[in-house]
Design a protein that fits this description.
The chain is an alpha/beta fold and 230 residues long. The chain contains twelve helices and five strands. A five-stranded parallel sheet has the order 2-1-3-4-5, sandwiched between helices. Helix 4 (88-97) crosses helix 6 and helix 9 (173-180) packs across helix 10 (184-198).
Length: 230
């Protein structure tokens, strides 16, 4: 008996090809593609037995939020994450969010179908070695040596960190200079060095990167003893 499925991925060609292959094997595919932002809503509305949910970056923070929302709203739906070769941390994050398994993008259709059947039966649908690594990561979380915010913070001098905080606060060159007691040309040079070290092209990008990676939280409060000049 076929499984009532959804294939949700923002790569339409991949989603439609997989959906077509599963239809040929007797499964009922409710939808083939959707942008990541609307994935959870679509699955909650259609309530399939199993959902194959595509992701391109399994280690990115928050990437499995749609899985958690689906499981909260529709706990009976088994969610299989469809993605690239993952790290144990990525697998652990998927399971922690409530996923029933993880299927690689390059898996053969027979392997995808086995994972679907396992997920519908309430079993963990993931390769044994990946599952072992994932549970080890869940039970004994490793240090985060690749933490992007910490890595970026270590690239900046204390003065450059202060400049970045002020940029994120929306201060222009004049206010940065007045607040730090330096010449505008010096402030401009500091800003350019911060942009260069962070690998971004604008102040807005620098502020967004700092916020996304938690760099500003790690930087701590910045003391501003000087007041802007009139």
């Amino acid at each position: 008996m076929g499984v009532r499925l959804m294939v949700v991925d923002d790569h339409r060609l991949l989603a439609e090809a997989l959906a077509s292959a599963l239809k040929l094997r007797g499964h009922r595919v409710l939808a083939a593609a959707a942008p990541a932002a609307g994935a959870a809503e679509l699955v909650i509305t259609r309530a399939p037995e199993v959902c194959l949910l595509g992701t391109a970056t399994p280690a990115e923070p928050g990437i499995f939020d749609p899985v958690a929302r689906i499981k909260q709203e529709r706990p009976q739906v088994a969610v299989l994450v469809l993605g690239p070769v993952p790290s144990p941390r990525g697998i652990a994050a998927a399971f922690a969010a409530g996923a029933s398994g993880y299927v690689r993008h390059d898996e053969r259709i027979e392997g995808v179908e086995r994972a679907i059947m396992k997920a519908r039966a309430g079993e963990a649908a993931v390769a044994p070695q990946l599952l072992q690594g994932a549970f080890s990561e869940l039970l004994n979380p490793a240090a985060q040596p690749d933490d992007e915010g910490q890595r970026l913070l270590q690239m900046l001098t204390p003065r450059e960190v202060e400049v970045l905080v002020r940029v994120a606060d929306g201060e222009d060159t004049r206010l940065i200079a007045a607040g730090m007691g330096i010449a505008p040309s010096t402030a401009r040079t500091h800003v350019q060095r911060v942009l260069m070290k962070l690998g971004v092209g604008s102040r807005l990008e620098a502020a967004a990167l700092a916020a996304r990676t938690g760099l500003l939280d790690r930087a701590g409060p910045v003391t501003r003893n000087r007041k802007p000049e009139a």
